[in-house]
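Technical annex B. To support the medicinal chemistry partners, we prepared a structural model of the target in complex with protoporphyrin IX containing FE, based solely on the information shown next.
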Amino acid sequence: MTTTRPTFEEFLSWLEDSRRHGQVHFDDMQQCWHVLGHPEATAVLSDAAAFSSDLSALRPRQDDLDLFQRGNFVNMDPPQHRKLRTLVSQAFTPRVVADLEPRIAELTTELLDQVDERFDLIDALAYPLPVIVIAELLGIPASDRSLFRTWADVLLGQDIDPDQALGEASAQALTAVAPVMHEMNAYFLDHIRSRRADPGDDLTSKLVRAEVDGERLADEEIVGFIGLLLIAGHITTTATLGNSVVSFQEHPDAVAEVRDDPGLLPAAIEEVLRMRTPFPRLARIATADTEVGGGHIAAGQVVIPWLTAANRDGRVFAEPSRFDVHRTPNPHLTFGHGIHFCLGAPLARLEARVALRLLLGRYRDVEVAGTEQVEHRNPWTMVAVTRLPLAVRAA
Ligand code: HEM
């Protein structure tokens, strides 16, 4: 199959065809294990000893990527992962997140005040809102956000061919992203040095002062922290805001229910997260011979837990293709599971809740204007729209 921008529906049917080979099966072409079932993906993500997040063996050495990886704890295993995650968790507490609510509401209102009755949701709100929030938290100038967008577009814009071996695909992608990595590292190093010289109240200044086992973090370690937070901290929430409006357009009855009972909005957002999972898959490497869901995985083999497929596993979700704002519980794996469970989930949920509440409250109708103009990312990499023209009518 050629994969220049396949649709989300094509991606879903590829996954369901794949599921026919078993919830856990080996793919000779990609040389990896696909894990499609919910209990099986949960089992892989729960066992960090048997399934490592350190994928460095899969890619060629590259100085800029190596620098970025030094503090990028999403790709680390215990005990190193725990040390760094604990440090960021201390600066990124539930209190810090909850206190952001008024600022998120203020920004949403300011951004929507600038548009008239036709606008692009991504440019006007879904992109700037989360990026300004995370940039302010990190003390990075939010005015540089078009630069961050360029970086994220390159990092996430790699078209993935499901028929290509993973090692080969990741080497190709690495060559394409190398210049951006270089630019990002230089930018972050500059920012960290200026905070070391002149600390403020932001997260970067806290990381600069923080100690792990009595030692300060090196500037080079903080680079990966900031990069992870900045990129993971906005692009996925941008995706979720866009995916919410796309889902609302597809399910007008559900939106009518949410308008009647705004208390249903959090459950509607969970359903969007389940059905349009921004990161469709994760990756691990087996450290030992292990059995999962009948598959005998050998040490050193690559394992891909497909979050999109797990979130549509009929054994866990009744009528998995139905958008149901009353679905409780909704144990989707969109934020991962286990020790790497998304640190930013409370922030992402808060941003989505505040922004969508204000959007629905402000406008009586929110319609996608011209579906042919909607642009999608490659769903193998990320499930998101990058262009979403809307026509709205004030309430
Ligand atoms: C809807 C929005 C989001 C989605 C779908 C999402 C998804 C994920 C997933 C699936 C993981 C697990 C990765 C793995 O196990 O390999 C993860 C980890 C992480 N996310 Fe998010 N994320 C979102 C928003 C955010 C935000 C807003 C932030 C930061 C402000 C953030 C920061 C992180 C960090 C730091 C990790 C690494 C945690 C660790 O390795 O211990 N994410 N995210």
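Notes passed to the chemistry partners:
The first strand starts at residue 24 and ends at 27.
The chain has a mean pLDDT of 91.
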